[in-house]
Fold these 2 entries.
Entry 1:
Amino acid sequence: MNKLHKKKDAGKISNTETGAIPQGIDLPSTSELYYNKLGANLLLLYQFYLRQETLLEPEIKMALWRMIQLNEDFRGKIRLLHLEYLEKDTVNLDAGWEDVKAFLFPMKEEPEAITHHIERDHRIVEYKEVVSELLSLNI
């Protein structure tokens, strides 16, 4: 038999049942999915913060710092955001909270400096609610 015939047989075996999960694929656990969702929402909020469109609550700041400490990819994304918005690289994100907070959160905490846009503000509130909910789950 030729190679084409083998390909057709392999295709028949792999297309066993529609909607079935193929063998050999690891599904992430629920906590991994929550962790990824938390990371994505924290990055979005941090981006809004660097654009001076929102202030960050202390628990969100601590969650950002903790995520930086635990996840190397997240740390790299924070560095990229700093390069994009602040046009400078952060030197040592592995340092303790007291050493990191000055350059991780450089914006002044003045609410009047925040510009308002209804749709964006609604989105920011949703992100904050998701982050608060995920933090309460202790994942």
Entry 2:
Amino acid sequence: MIKNGLKSFFKSLKYFFTPFGTLALSVILGLSVAIPLMSAAIGELTANVQDIANNASLDFNALKDSFVSSVGALNWSEPTEAIRSILSRDWLMNTFTECVKALVEDYEPLVAQAQEALNHCIATIVAGVVLVLFFAIVGIIAGYFVTKSLIRRTIAKRAFRKLFLATLIDSFLVTAYVVLSSYLTALWPASLIILTLLSPFLIGIGALIEAYLLHGWKTVKAREIINVKNSFKLLLVNLLIILIAAAFTATVVAVVNTVTGIFVGLALFEIAAIVIGMNAEAYVKDAVAQKLAPTNP
């Protein structure tokens, strides 16, 4: 199982550019819409700030008086303390604010106009970022299902009629797990911790049960498929696949850059998730094929 699982993962890497390309195309489409919106918002902000600046009346004498007053208000009987105050961030910010207020007549209305223009620009930029993220999520989902259909044909092909059966089995197993977990937790709260630690093993058992019902029923014995040994093997191969995908992603981040690493990592983990979800089915199908294979005389 471990050998075949790893083989399936590496074989499925030939579809790498399906999720990678779908994600990249989606992000490019999102950027093609978002960048013009952001650019227009920044241009509008610049124009608004220019208008506000052109309409402002400046009083440089008031600026000078404000600055002199702020400096004179310091305790110059202690020059060291006064100089330390001048160099402090709070004093500089407060003095700058007061000087600007003195310099610009009708300061408050102009600040309100500038703040409104800035808020509009920021809101548009945030909307653009959200739009790009939305396109990226759509690309990830679309790439996942397209890649899954391609990989399934290679390692765990099944008839369309079995899709409904698989949905029923999944629903039953998930419901049974939730009910059992709730019941045991109500009896003994500490059991929640134990169930959490055992969840990867239990998920493996569930995957083997589903795979057996879909592909091995009445062909191979249930105990040959659904057992502790196979569950641990399934857990191990799935863990190895995740570690390989993570190691390769980290290498790309270190050698190239973070953005490329994110794109590569998302594509790799999509393929890893798909293969992990089919490893049990692939194992059962292989066991059935060996069972039905004619023996040499």
